[in-house]
Design brief:
The chain is an alpha+beta fold. The protein folds into 4 domains: 8-70; 75-124; 125-159; 185-295, Glutaredoxin (3-Layer(aba) Sandwich), CATH 3.40.30. It has 7 helices and 12 strands. A hairpin with a 2-residue loop joins strand 2 (84-94) and strand 3 (97-101). The chain is globular, with a radius of gyration of 27 Å. The model is unreliable at 1-45, 67-72 and 166-183 (pLDDT under 50).
Length: 297
């Protein structure tokens, strides 16, 4: 009986596909009729007719893109440790794992964490994965050295600036004001790492609530959440925001804190104790942990 009867989901999919096909066909026919009318009325040279044709093509193209995107099938994955990734889209396949887009953000899942069937599906090769990991590590190491050299040169330039200056003058008046600083809190928002290892405990604003945001510039969900976090730190003098740019999935800070999904937000109370972690762009959940951190002292 199960083999002879189609599931309700499949039937609904066929019906939906039929409706989409009819709508696309209607658009194409309408477009064709519009072109014929243009020719019939000798308006093919008229600029307005050209605009009509261009707009019609763009509308049909946009409609087709939306149609195909709406019927794209999502995947479900289950890691060997039992963790499940439901209704996700494979954004990119790398030699050592797959990058997934979920409703809450972006995750990198390594093939070593997935069952053999999934490894075979994406043609996982352990030797290629090891070579890829080594090359990425080398690239990251070179990047970190470059950043260190830039910081060294910047420090030298700053030292040169101060040499020979009149110590009796108020040097602070010559420099641009830093980001808002509150006693005991430090800067209201600060990026404390670009992929390199970092000790979060050294950057906590003890006596205040510290929000630590793991993000990346290429992460849409991170960009969605970031303004809310920055506004919290800007409007509440008891909140300090510390941001960690993971850069990519191979950086030292990703391995240090075992980051698999971003955005990830850690909230610490006034004593520097972790109150909660939010692995999504849920600003309301972050605010709930912040309130809890304030109340807990």
């Amino acid at each position: 009986m199960a083999s002879a009867t189609r599931s309700r989901h499949e039937q609904e999919g066929d019906e939906h596909g039929g409706v989409l096909f009819e709508e696309v066909l209607f658009c194409l026919v309408s477009h064709s009729v519009g072109r014929q009318n243009c020719r019939r009325n000798h308006m093919i040279r008229d600029p307005w007719c050209a605009v009509f044709r261009s707009e019609s093509k763009m509308k049909i193209l946009t409609f087709l893109i939306l149609c195909f995107a709406s019927v794209a099938l999502a995947d479900d994955f289950k890691a060997v440790d039992g963790k499940e990734y439901k209704n996700v889209t494979v954004s990119r396949v790398e030699p050592d794992g797959i990058v997934l887009i979920t409703s809450s953000g972006i995750s990198k899942v390594y093939f070593t964490e997935l069952p053999k069937a999934v490894q075979e599906r994406f043609h996982y090769d352990a030797a290629k994965a090891a070579g890829y990991s080594a090359s990425q590590a080398a690239i990251q190491e070179a990047f970190q050295k470059q950043q260190e050299e830039l910081r060294r040169k910047l420090a030298e330039e700053q030292n040169k600036y101060w040499i020979g200056q009149d110590p009796h003058k108020n040097q602070e008046e010559k420099l641009p004001a830093p980001a808002a600083v509150v006693a005991g809190r430090g800067q209201q928002a600060e990026v404390i790492s670009h992929g390199a290892q970092v000790e979060i405990t050294k950057h906590l604003a003890l006596g205040n609530v510290t929000v630590v945001d793991f993000y990346a510039d290429w992460c849409p969900a991170c960009k969605q959440l970031s303004p809310s976090l920055e506004q919290m730190a800007r409007t509440d003098p008891e909140i300090a925001l510390r941001k960690i740019d993971i850069v990519d999935w191979k950086t030292a800070v990703v391995r240090q804190y075992n980051i698999h999904s971003i955005p990830q937000v850690n909230v610490y109370n006034r004593r520097g104790q972790l109150v909660g972690t939010v692995v999504s762009a849920n600003a309301a959940e972050v605010k709930r942990y912040v309130a809890q951190a304030k109340a807990g002292g």
